[in-house]
Amino acid sequence: MSMSAERHGQVNVIPRPVRVSLSGTAPFALQPRMAVHALGGNEAQAVAQHLVAGIKRLTGMQLAGVDGREGDGVVLKLDAGMKNDGGELSQREGYRLSVNERRVEIAARTGHGLFNGVQTLAQLAQSAGGSAWSVPAGVVEDWPRFAWRGLQLDVGRHFFSVEEILRLLDLMALHKLNTFHMHLTEDQGWRVEVKRYPKLTEVGAWRAESPKMGDRKSGDGIPYGGFYTQEDLKRIVAYAGERFITVVPEIEMPGHSTAAIAAYPELGNQDVPGLTVSAVSPHWSVHENTLNPTAKTFEFIGHVFDELLPLFPGEYVHIGGDEAPKTQWQKSAVAQDVMQSNGLKDEHELQAWFVRRVEEMLHARGKRLIGWDEIQEGGLSPTATMMVWRDWKWARHALDRGNQVVMAPTSHLYFDYGQENTPAKPEFEVIGASLTTQKVYELEPVPDGVSAEQAKNVLGCEAQLWGEYIWSWDKLTYMTFPRACAMAEVAWTTGERKWEDFSGRLSKHMDRLDRLGVNYRRDDGMPARGDVGMGRTPRVR
Ligand code: ACM
Question: Does pTM surpass 0.70?
Fold first, then answer.
């Protein structure tokens, strides 16, 4: 970066752009009712609308609408022939932002690049006193380090409304995060409408109660549930798409499937002596229930895929695969028969066989499989992508075999973990552990000792918002921010990163989050807006 130290305060952008060169000449003054000139057709015009909205949200200033004319002022230019020197990702997502006293121009080869430039411009705008805002003169050339910059939300444990999801997508976009992973099915709730299997949501989306806040061993006696209709999901996917965010659905299997089995008991290991699964689980923790590995189950999965996958234009489908205890398969004569007839030596090989069948079904539907690192148990499919959450050795295991990985390690990216100075009140309860923003920032997603060629298979990283203790929108944002700001920079910024530099920019960025009404965690541990919501929002039929 060629930015000098004394000018540094003028570029409080998160994630930090790759190259910033300030000219020191007069800044560009943003004026109310200024037009945004969008050159390059409908896509440029659509992105320009985001600029108008972003400037309004962050500065309060209302620009005029968007036009397609050349001229000075604010210009967005889609230019497929533009040269970017940051490699393939800079072609896909890079942009160049040039500012002088007369003109602010964002140029990019793609709409996604323009959109990223818009996020930078909205953050570059700084108060010039009163209602005046200006943009410092200079050039920003920027592109991401990683293609996958993700956030996972577990709506299985706690459900969030479509409106809340859309707000989260806006906050992701501000930080140039581009992958929203929706964990849609769990032991504690199946959250997506499948028309062919209505009981998945009639039965599977509702639990009798939840663990009490601050006393996880007792139930609260309050029925809870909710699900997304397919229309809801279309809205979410469309809204995400307009912000260049890909939605990755996760349909968990073979474990974490109590809700599905409660709805359709024939999906479970019914021949296990004494086993009945008649209700969605009201408890947290790992459950023993797994899908049975029979043709009927694969038929079910195929039908679910047939209905749901067309809603998600992205390449990847997450199939979970984590925390699937083998106890029921060990006791099930049906599962043992499947093992024997397929020459599988143990239940881990059965899981690998299960995952490969599902992967074939995804390939037949034009999709790629991603799963938690347990998908290597019993043999990793050469074409699967692994989401690494436990030990870094699984990343090396996958990279050594030529597989792709996305890094989501508990050590740095489990945002359901607590932090120091958390108020000792029931509503602040967390799953445990401690993960500070600084620790998040210190993540280097490429494991030590891998070759440059292998490093290309590290697609990026993703923060995890497991939902057991995230029962309200205000708790969700408290757990997410500012840790997500740190991860965004880890995933975006090429080159050396320094905590002192980041934390200086972060304190200014918090003013932005205040303006947006985000209930982030302050340095003293308190929520910016005073509390985290007094309890879960009851969701009843
Ligand atoms: C996980 O946290 N069970 C992936």
Answer: yes
